[in-house]
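Practice problem: predict the structure.
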Amino acid sequence: MTEKTDRISGELPAEDNLVTAVHRILHASPQPLTLAKIHSLLPTAYRSVTLMELSEILGRQVAAHVLCQYPKYRSAHDRYWDRTMAVHVGDLLRSVLQQGPLPWSMLRRRLPIYAQAAQAEAVLKEQLSQSLLFRYPRMGRNAERYGLEPCDPKEYLRRELERVFQRLGHLGFSQAQLKAGALELLHDEEWGVPAEAPAPSQTSEIPSEQLPIDQPTIR
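Answer:
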C-alpha cells in the first residue's frame, strides 16, 4: 500500500509541475502561443514530453476552462493562452493603434479575420468605457477616430483658427494683427468669464418738493 501511494505521489506531481510550467509560460506571453512554441519554452526537464502529450494536457486545460484555445492565424496551428478572446482582441486593438489614431473602418480591417468576427466592436466599446482607448470627435467630413491617448484639442483649435483668420483676413486684417489680437484675448484676465449683469437700478426717492401738484379738476 505504501509503495502504491509513493508511486502515485511520484507520478502526479510530474504532470502537475508540467502544467505549472505551461501556465507560467502563457502568463508571461503577451499573446497566444502555438503548441510548438510552448514546447520550445518548456524547462529542460520537460523537453522530453512529445507534442502529442503536450497537446493532450493543453486540451484537458481548455476543457476545464482554465486555458483558452484560439483559432489558427499566421500559421496552420492552434494557439493557447491563459486569457479570454476579449482580452486578446483588446490587446490587438491597442497594438494596431500604436501607429496613430484610426477610424473604425480602417482599424477593423487591420485585425485578424477571426478577431473581426469575435465581437471586436463590443470589445472596442468596453475599452472606451475603461479609458483604455479614446474616441476622437469628427473633424470636417472625416469619420471619428480612436487612439491610445486622449484627444488633443489643439488639433481642432488649429483648424478652426485657420478658418477664422482666413475669414477675417478678407476684411483687411493682417495675419500679424490677428495673431496679436488672439494672444491678447487669451491673456485677458476675463477670458472665458461671462460679463457680469448690470446691478438692478434702485429707484431713488423723489424729494417731496419735486412731486407734481395735483391740479383741480375743471368741471
